[in-house]
Write a structure and sequence with these properties.
Blueprint: H1 3-18, E1 21-28, H2 29-33, E2 42-49, H3 52-56, E3 64-69, E4 83-89, H4 90-98, H5 102-109, E5 113-116, H6 121-127, H7 131-150, H8 158-177, H9 185-191, H10 198-215, H11 224-235, H12 249-261
Parallel strand pairs: 2-4
Antiparallel strand pairs: 1-2, 1-5, 3-4
Protein backbone atom coordinates (compact mmCIF):
# COMPACT_ATOMS: atom_id res chain seq x y z
CA UNK A 1 0.00 0.00 0.00
CA UNK A 2 1.44 3.40 -0.96
CA UNK A 3 1.73 6.25 1.59
CA UNK A 4 -1.31 8.16 0.34
CA UNK A 5 -3.51 5.07 0.59
CA UNK A 6 -2.31 4.46 4.16
CA UNK A 7 -3.00 8.08 5.07
CA UNK A 8 -6.52 7.96 3.61
CA UNK A 9 -7.24 4.67 5.39
CA UNK A 10 -6.12 6.12 8.73
CA UNK A 11 -8.25 9.24 8.18
CA UNK A 12 -11.36 7.09 7.72
CA UNK A 13 -10.52 5.12 10.88
CA UNK A 14 -9.87 8.30 12.88
CA UNK A 15 -13.21 9.82 11.98
CA UNK A 16 -15.06 6.72 13.15
CA UNK A 17 -12.94 6.14 16.27
CA UNK A 18 -12.95 9.77 17.44
CA UNK A 19 -16.44 10.71 16.27
CA UNK A 20 -15.27 13.69 14.20
CA UNK A 21 -15.44 14.88 10.60
CA UNK A 22 -12.21 15.87 8.86
CA UNK A 23 -12.50 19.10 6.86
CA UNK A 24 -9.15 18.88 5.14
CA UNK A 25 -5.87 17.04 5.49
CA UNK A 26 -2.43 18.03 4.19
CA UNK A 27 1.28 17.29 4.49
CA UNK A 28 3.30 19.72 6.61
CA UNK A 29 6.93 19.91 7.69
CA UNK A 30 9.95 19.00 5.60
CA UNK A 31 8.07 17.28 2.78
CA UNK A 32 5.85 20.34 2.23
CA UNK A 33 8.90 22.60 2.50
CA UNK A 34 10.70 20.45 -0.12
CA UNK A 35 13.65 19.83 2.19
CA UNK A 36 12.82 16.21 3.02
CA UNK A 37 15.30 13.35 2.90
CA UNK A 38 14.79 9.68 2.07
CA UNK A 39 14.01 8.78 5.68
CA UNK A 40 11.78 11.76 6.50
CA UNK A 41 8.51 10.80 8.17
CA UNK A 42 5.08 12.02 7.08
CA UNK A 43 3.77 15.02 9.02
CA UNK A 44 0.06 14.61 8.36
CA UNK A 45 -2.04 17.52 9.61
CA UNK A 46 -5.78 17.98 9.54
CA UNK A 47 -8.65 20.09 10.85
CA UNK A 48 -11.72 18.41 12.26
CA UNK A 49 -15.17 19.38 13.47
CA UNK A 50 -17.16 17.60 16.19
CA UNK A 51 -20.94 17.08 16.40
CA UNK A 52 -22.74 20.28 17.44
CA UNK A 53 -23.70 18.94 20.90
CA UNK A 54 -20.03 18.46 21.76
CA UNK A 55 -19.55 22.24 21.54
CA UNK A 56 -22.48 22.81 23.91
CA UNK A 57 -21.22 20.47 26.61
CA UNK A 58 -19.83 21.80 29.91
CA UNK A 59 -17.10 19.16 29.57
CA UNK A 60 -15.47 20.00 26.25
CA UNK A 61 -13.52 17.30 24.48
CA UNK A 62 -9.86 17.63 23.50
CA UNK A 63 -9.17 20.11 20.74
CA UNK A 64 -6.10 18.16 19.56
CA UNK A 65 -5.94 14.57 18.31
CA UNK A 66 -2.55 12.92 17.82
CA UNK A 67 -1.94 9.42 16.49
CA UNK A 68 1.26 7.83 15.21
CA UNK A 69 1.83 4.81 12.99
CA UNK A 70 4.64 2.68 11.60
CA UNK A 71 5.34 2.18 7.90
CA UNK A 72 2.53 -0.37 7.57
CA UNK A 73 -0.08 1.85 9.18
CA UNK A 74 -0.08 0.10 12.55
CA UNK A 75 -0.23 2.24 15.69
CA UNK A 76 3.28 2.90 16.96
CA UNK A 77 5.10 5.08 19.53
CA UNK A 78 5.78 8.67 18.51
CA UNK A 79 9.54 8.11 18.62
CA UNK A 80 10.57 6.63 15.30
CA UNK A 81 7.09 6.61 13.76
CA UNK A 82 6.63 6.98 10.00
CA UNK A 83 3.21 8.63 9.96
CA UNK A 84 2.65 11.42 12.50
CA UNK A 85 -0.99 12.56 12.46
CA UNK A 86 -2.01 15.74 14.31
CA UNK A 87 -5.51 17.18 14.08
CA UNK A 88 -6.83 20.49 15.42
CA UNK A 89 -10.45 21.18 16.27
CA UNK A 90 -11.84 23.91 14.03
CA UNK A 91 -12.12 26.38 16.94
CA UNK A 92 -8.47 25.93 17.94
CA UNK A 93 -7.43 26.14 14.29
CA UNK A 94 -9.42 29.33 13.70
CA UNK A 95 -8.06 31.06 16.81
CA UNK A 96 -4.51 30.26 15.73
CA UNK A 97 -5.25 31.49 12.23
CA UNK A 98 -6.68 34.72 13.62
CA UNK A 99 -3.41 35.33 15.47
CA UNK A 100 -1.38 34.65 12.28
CA UNK A 101 0.28 31.55 13.66
CA UNK A 102 2.54 30.26 10.85
CA UNK A 103 1.89 26.63 11.76
CA UNK A 104 -1.73 26.75 10.60
CA UNK A 105 -1.05 29.22 7.80
CA UNK A 106 1.41 26.68 6.40
CA UNK A 107 -1.27 23.99 6.63
CA UNK A 108 -3.40 26.16 4.38
CA UNK A 109 -0.74 26.93 1.79
CA UNK A 110 0.64 23.38 1.66
CA UNK A 111 0.32 22.05 -1.88
CA UNK A 112 0.39 18.40 -0.77
CA UNK A 113 -3.30 17.89 -0.13
CA UNK A 114 -4.58 14.47 0.87
CA UNK A 115 -8.22 15.30 1.37
CA UNK A 116 -10.84 18.01 1.64
CA UNK A 117 -11.52 21.64 0.99
CA UNK A 118 -9.80 24.56 2.74
CA UNK A 119 -12.77 26.79 1.89
CA UNK A 120 -12.48 30.46 2.85
CA UNK A 121 -9.58 29.80 5.23
CA UNK A 122 -6.99 29.89 2.44
CA UNK A 123 -7.94 33.38 1.24
CA UNK A 124 -8.10 34.61 4.82
CA UNK A 125 -4.57 33.36 5.53
CA UNK A 126 -3.08 35.17 2.54
CA UNK A 127 -4.98 38.45 2.80
CA UNK A 128 -5.72 38.97 6.50
CA UNK A 129 -2.46 37.92 8.15
CA UNK A 130 -0.85 40.27 10.66
CA UNK A 131 2.71 41.02 9.45
CA UNK A 132 4.11 41.84 12.89
CA UNK A 133 2.63 38.69 14.43
CA UNK A 134 3.87 36.46 11.60
CA UNK A 135 7.33 38.04 11.79
CA UNK A 136 7.73 37.37 15.51
CA UNK A 137 6.30 33.86 15.24
CA UNK A 138 8.97 32.98 12.67
CA UNK A 139 11.63 34.74 14.71
CA UNK A 140 10.62 32.62 17.70
CA UNK A 141 11.06 29.45 15.60
CA UNK A 142 14.58 30.55 14.73
CA UNK A 143 15.38 31.38 18.35
CA UNK A 144 14.07 28.10 19.76
CA UNK A 145 16.08 25.94 17.37
CA UNK A 146 19.23 28.03 17.71
CA UNK A 147 19.30 28.32 21.49
CA UNK A 148 18.19 24.73 22.21
CA UNK A 149 20.33 22.85 19.72
CA UNK A 150 22.93 24.95 17.93
CA UNK A 151 24.23 27.41 20.50
CA UNK A 152 24.40 24.68 23.16
CA UNK A 153 25.95 22.25 20.65
CA UNK A 154 23.56 19.56 21.89
CA UNK A 155 22.41 18.67 18.35
CA UNK A 156 24.33 20.45 15.60
CA UNK A 157 23.07 19.00 12.32
CA UNK A 158 22.11 20.25 8.88
CA UNK A 159 18.47 19.66 9.82
CA UNK A 160 18.63 21.94 12.88
CA UNK A 161 20.40 24.65 10.90
CA UNK A 162 17.74 24.50 8.19
CA UNK A 163 14.95 24.76 10.75
CA UNK A 164 16.59 27.73 12.49
CA UNK A 165 17.48 29.50 9.27
CA UNK A 166 14.06 28.87 7.77
CA UNK A 167 12.54 30.81 10.67
CA UNK A 168 15.01 33.64 10.06
CA UNK A 169 14.57 33.76 6.27
CA UNK A 170 10.77 33.61 6.50
CA UNK A 171 10.72 36.43 9.05
CA UNK A 172 12.85 38.57 6.75
CA UNK A 173 10.60 37.64 3.83
CA UNK A 174 7.57 39.05 5.67
CA UNK A 175 9.47 42.33 6.01
CA UNK A 176 10.95 42.49 2.51
CA UNK A 177 8.13 41.05 0.36
CA UNK A 178 5.18 41.82 2.67
CA UNK A 179 3.47 38.51 1.92
CA UNK A 180 3.15 35.06 3.45
CA UNK A 181 6.36 33.15 2.59
CA UNK A 182 6.02 30.31 0.06
CA UNK A 183 5.76 26.78 1.47
CA UNK A 184 8.69 25.69 -0.73
CA UNK A 185 11.80 26.90 1.13
CA UNK A 186 14.00 26.87 -1.98
CA UNK A 187 11.56 29.24 -3.66
CA UNK A 188 11.71 31.56 -0.66
CA UNK A 189 15.51 31.58 -0.84
CA UNK A 190 15.40 32.48 -4.54
CA UNK A 191 12.96 35.33 -3.90
CA UNK A 192 15.18 36.63 -1.09
CA UNK A 193 18.41 36.73 -3.12
CA UNK A 194 18.36 40.54 -3.28
CA UNK A 195 17.52 40.92 0.42
CA UNK A 196 20.10 38.70 2.10
CA UNK A 197 23.84 38.00 1.74
CA UNK A 198 24.56 35.84 -1.30
CA UNK A 199 26.85 33.48 0.62
CA UNK A 200 24.08 32.71 3.14
CA UNK A 201 21.54 31.96 0.39
CA UNK A 202 23.92 29.72 -1.55
CA UNK A 203 25.07 27.85 1.55
CA UNK A 204 21.47 27.13 2.51
CA UNK A 205 20.67 25.82 -0.97
CA UNK A 206 23.67 23.49 -0.74
CA UNK A 207 22.57 22.23 2.69
CA UNK A 208 19.12 21.44 1.32
CA UNK A 209 20.79 19.17 -1.23
CA UNK A 210 22.88 17.51 1.51
CA UNK A 211 19.72 16.88 3.51
CA UNK A 212 17.91 15.40 0.52
CA UNK A 213 20.76 12.91 0.18
CA UNK A 214 20.13 11.68 3.71
CA UNK A 215 22.78 13.62 5.62
CA UNK A 216 20.33 15.56 7.75
CA UNK A 217 21.12 13.91 11.11
CA UNK A 218 24.90 13.70 10.77
CA UNK A 219 26.68 15.66 13.49
CA UNK A 220 28.58 18.61 12.04
CA UNK A 221 30.68 21.46 13.46
CA UNK A 222 28.94 24.76 14.08
CA UNK A 223 28.78 26.99 11.01
CA UNK A 224 30.19 30.36 12.15
CA UNK A 225 28.68 32.41 9.32
CA UNK A 226 25.21 31.11 10.22
CA UNK A 227 25.73 31.51 13.97
CA UNK A 228 26.82 35.13 13.57
CA UNK A 229 23.95 35.91 11.23
CA UNK A 230 21.39 34.31 13.57
CA UNK A 231 22.73 36.03 16.68
CA UNK A 232 22.70 39.41 14.95
CA UNK A 233 19.12 38.78 13.83
CA UNK A 234 17.92 37.73 17.29
CA UNK A 235 19.42 40.79 18.99
CA UNK A 236 17.77 43.36 16.73
CA UNK A 237 14.03 43.96 16.33
CA UNK A 238 14.36 47.23 14.45
CA UNK A 239 13.33 45.70 11.12
CA UNK A 240 10.08 44.25 12.51
CA UNK A 241 6.99 45.32 10.56
CA UNK A 242 5.28 48.38 11.94
CA UNK A 243 1.98 47.40 10.36
CA UNK A 244 -0.39 46.08 13.02
CA UNK A 245 -3.07 45.21 10.49
CA UNK A 246 -6.18 43.77 12.11
CA UNK A 247 -7.73 40.85 10.30
CA UNK A 248 -11.43 40.93 9.44
CA UNK A 249 -12.51 38.35 11.98
CA UNK A 250 -16.16 38.46 10.86
CA UNK A 251 -15.30 36.46 7.74
CA UNK A 252 -13.49 33.82 9.77
CA UNK A 253 -16.14 33.72 12.48
CA UNK A 254 -18.96 33.30 9.98
CA UNK A 255 -17.18 30.45 8.23
CA UNK A 256 -16.57 28.59 11.50
CA UNK A 257 -20.19 29.01 12.64
CA UNK A 258 -21.42 27.81 9.26
CA UNK A 259 -19.27 24.66 9.41
CA UNK A 260 -20.26 23.78 12.98
CA UNK A 261 -23.96 24.28 12.22
CA UNK A 262 -23.61 21.73 9.42
CA UNK A 263 -23.10 19.13 12.17
CA UNK A 264 -26.69 19.53 13.46
Amino acid sequence: MNPKDIIMEKLVELQVEKGVRVLFCIEAGSRAWRIDSKDSDYDVRYVFVRPLNDYLSINPKSDVIRTTYDGKGQKAPEQGCIYDFVGFDILKFARMLQSSNPQVIEWLISDIIYYGNKRAFYDYALTQFKPIALYFHYKSMCKQNYLKYLQTRSMVTYKKYLYAMRGLVNAKYVVAIEKVPPIDFSKTLTLMKDHMPKNIIERLKNIIQYKKKGREKTDIPNIPEFDEFIESFLKDDSEAPKNKRLGTINVLDQEVVKIIKEEE
